[in-house]
Structure formats: structure tokens, C-alpha cells
Amino acid sequence: VQAFTETYLSRPEVQLAIYATPVKRWRECGLSGDGEYDFNFQSMLPTYRRWLGGDAPQLRVLVYSGDADFILNFLGTQSWIESLQLRVRKHFRKWLGSDKQVAGYVTEYEQGFTYATVKGAGHMVPTDRPRHALDMVAAFLAGTSLDEVTQE
User: Is 0.70 surpassed by the pTM of this model?
Assistant: First the structure.
């Protein structure tokens, strides 16, 4: 999966479509060619502002955090999202996974922006909570709220 992702995200037309800064070869989590992490402290706020308004077409955006992530704590994510000053459409509330368990919490904002946490997941949400990660992404791609995840 990682090789497929790197190949796909290295395609110039994909980088253009997602407003990414063009790179010759995309690498996971800022890893350099020698496996060392390349710390990049540039703010992504201007990019999110561009995606959510201005000249760009309206994009739906899903940002999620594992609530047990000690690398990028969900409270930090909430803080930068609040700095965007988006109007809340549906306030912070629990969402249930397809297994009928509390999968996390979600806030939906105007302009198509959704922030979700995934309960019990660390930095690698799909690895830690694959079922709930799939539920979340499937609902987002279907254009439905996390309140509407199909229960088994």
C-alpha cells in the first residue's frame, strides 16, 4: 500500500489536483531519502484557507486525529482549526462506527470542513483502528455525516 501511495502522490496531475507543492517523489511523513525525518514547520493554515474559500472551487475537507496520538495531539489540531474561524454547523458530538461502538467525536463546519477524532487511535489511525478509519473515510467519500455510518 505504501508503494502504491507514494507512486500515486508523486504524479504531477495528482499533486496539481490537491494543490500540493510539486515534488519529484512523494515520501510518507516527510521522510528524506535516507529515512531521516525532514522537519517542516511551515504553517498549512494558508493552504486550508485557500481550499475553503477564495478562487479555489469548494472542496470538502476531512481532518482527523487519533485521540491517543502523542505525536500530534488532537487538542493541537482543534486549536489550529479554531484559528480558521469557521462557523460550526454541527457541534462536537460522538459518532458510532459500523460496530455500534463510539468511534470518536466529530464537528462539522460550514464550507464543507469536518474534524473528527478516532477513539483509541494513535498517530496512524488506519493501523490502530482500521474499521473506524474505514467507516469515517467511506462516510466522507459518500458525502454523508459521520452520524449516518451504517450500523451492522
Answer: yes
